[in-house]
Amino acid sequence: MHIDYHIFCLCSLFINEVYLDVNINLSNVTVLQKIDPRFLGVTMDSGGIKHHWNNYSFTSPKLLTLARGLTPCIIRVGGTDADYVIFTRNNTEQPLNKHSLSYGDHYNFTMSAGDWDKINIFANSAGWDLIFDLNIAPRVNGQWDATNAMELFKYTVEKGYRLYGFELGNELNISPQFHVSAQQSAVDFLSLRKILKSIPSLSSSLIIGPDVAGIVVSFTDEFLDSGGVVAVDVVTFHHYYMGGSEATVDKFKDPAILDSLAPQIIGSIAAIGKTSPGKPVWLGETSTTWSAGPDNIGSAYVASFMWLDKLGVCARYGVKGVLRQTFSGNGALLGPSDFDPNTDYWISVLYKRLVGSNVFSITQSSDRNIRMYAHCTMIPSTMGYERGSVTVYILNLGSDAVTIDVTGITDTTQHLYLFSPGDERELRSQYAKLNGNLIQMTSDDRLPQLPPVPHSGSIILGGYNLGFIVFPNANKTQCM
C-alpha cells in the first residue's frame, strides 16, 4: 500500500503535457546570507485587545497546537490600533473619552492586566518570543509621554514576563491622526532605550522600528540620522504587494508583481548600510495584500505563490526577519474563527522544518514562471535529515508542467513536498493537497503528518504547483 501511494503521487504530477526543462545546478553554490530559525514570524493585530482577545480563544487546544507548529517563532502584537492602547491594571472596562484620539474606526481603548496576561501566557506556552508595539500617541510638549508605558513595564516585571522586543508607534510616515516626524520619533525611541536599560529584566529586550509603511527609505534615513541608528537594534519596514480590493487570481501569480520586491529590498538594505552597517532589516509586518480582498482570495491557494516567493526573495537578499500579518484572520495563516489552516500555514510549517540558515546562490530559470531558492536543510532536523542536506523550494506560476533535472551532486535522491490546489475551485481553493493528498487537521492536539514522496531522477512539477525538494545525500560542505 505504501508503494501504491508513491506511484499515485508521482503519476498525478504528469497531468499536463511537459513544455519546459528546468535545471537545478547545485555544483558551485555559494552562501549568500544566513537566516535565523525565527526568520519566519507572525503578527497579531492590536485591535484584538479592543475585544479582550475574544476572537483568539487562547485556551483552545487547536490554536496552541497550530502555534507550536511554527516554533521557534516571533510574535509581534502591533498595527494601527497600537497607538490607541492605554494599559490599566484594572480588569474591568475603563471609561475613556473615545474622541480624545480617534480616526475612523480607531479610538482610545484600554488593555487590562488580564489582556496582557493572556498574550504573554499564550506566547510562553507556544514557545514564541513576544514583541509589543507601544503607544507613541501620548505626548507632552511634543515629546513622547512614557507614563503609561512605565505602568506596563512595572506590571510586566512584577509578573516575571520576558519580552523579546518593543516597538514604538506604527507607520508614522502615513499616520493621519497625529504627526510625529522621523526626527522626533528618533528622539522618542532614544527615550524608550534609556528607560528599558534602567530596568534589569527588560534591558536585553530589542528595540525595533521605525515600522514604516512601505519600503520607504527617506523616512528611515532621517530617522537613523537623527539618533535612530543608536536607538534601534532592528530596522523595520512593512510591505504588501497591493490592497485586497485590487487583488485578482492573475495578479497573485504575475511574475512582474513578484519581481517588484527584490529591487526595493536591495535598495533599502544598501541605503541603511551606509548609515548603519550591519544593522538587521526586517519586514516587521507583511503579507500579500493589506486586506483579504473579494471572496477572501487572500486566504486562497493562489496567495501562496506570493508568500513562498517573498520568503525566498527576503532570505536571498539579506532581510533577517519576515513577520506575517496575521496569525489568524482574513487573509491570514489561519481562518478567523475556526482556526482552519490555509495553504500558507502548511507552507510555513514545512519552511520551518526544512529550510536552514545558509542561503545559497542558485541560477534562476529563463522562464519567469519558474522561481527557485536553495538553502542548507534545517539542522537539527525533526524530519530526520543529516548535515550536508540541501533544500530547494520552487514555484511554477504557469499552467504547464515542467521537467526538473538536478546536476552538481552525485546522489540525486530527492524527497518531494509538492503542493497543489485542494478542490475543484483550483487556484481559489481554501485547501491544498500535499503530494496529491488533502491536508486536514484530524486532531486538535497534533498536526497531521506531512510526509514526503521519495524519488530519484527527473521531477515533474505540475502547473500551479509549488513546494520543497530535499536532497538528503547532497553532502554539501557548506551544510556540514
Automatic annotation (TrEMBL):
| GO cellular component terms attached to this protein's record | extracellular matrix; extracellular space; membrane
Any Pfam family hit: Glyco_hydro_79n
GO MF annotation list: hydrolase activity, acting on glycosyl bonds
Q: Cross-referenced InterPro entries, in alphabetical order?
A: GH, Glyco_hydro_79
What superkingdom does the record give?
Eukaryota
Q: Which family does it belong to?
A: Belongs to the glycosyl hydrolase 79 family.
Protein name stated in the entry: Uncharacterized protein
Higher taxonomy: Eukaryota, Metazoa, Spiralia, Lophotrochozoa, Mollusca
